[in-house]
Specification:
With 94 residues, the chain is mainly alpha-helical. It has one domain. It has 5 helices and 2 strands; from the N terminus they run H-H-H-E-E-H-H. Strands 1-2 form a two-stranded antiparallel sheet. Strand 1 and strand 2 form a beta hairpin. The longest helix is centred in the last third of the chain and has 10 residues. It is globular.
Length: 94
């Protein structure tokens, strides 16, 4: 497995994280339907396609509304480069 978004961003919204009580659990850290996508744990390496993640200090709404912010994110770029030809932009089965 590779580094996941909550590890890279240190947001603290993963289960047991420092900000979980304040902001709730991040869906990227708890949604098992994308386990293994882009070699991540849960949805941790396809966070841009998951509503309710924390970006720029704010909980984001739908993935459609946050895509411009996410596509400019250094974590998104890191995953894209690490995965190369195997990169998933959207959740499989969407």
């Amino acid at each position: 497995m590779q580094v996941n978004c909550w590890e890279f961003k240190s947001c603290g919204r993963e289960p047991g994280g420092s900000r979980e009580a304040e902001l709730g659990s991040c869906p990227a850290a708890t949604d098992a339907s994308n386990e293994g996508v882009n070699r991540g744990r849960m949805s941790g390496r396809i966070c841009w396609a998951v509503a309710g993640t924390l970006c720029d200090g704010e909980v984001q709404a739908s993935s459609a509304k946050k895509k411009h912010t996410c596509f400019a994110c250094e974590f998104f770029e890191r995953v894209r480069l690490e995965e190369g030809d195997y990169f998933h932009l959207i959740c499989p089965g969407s």
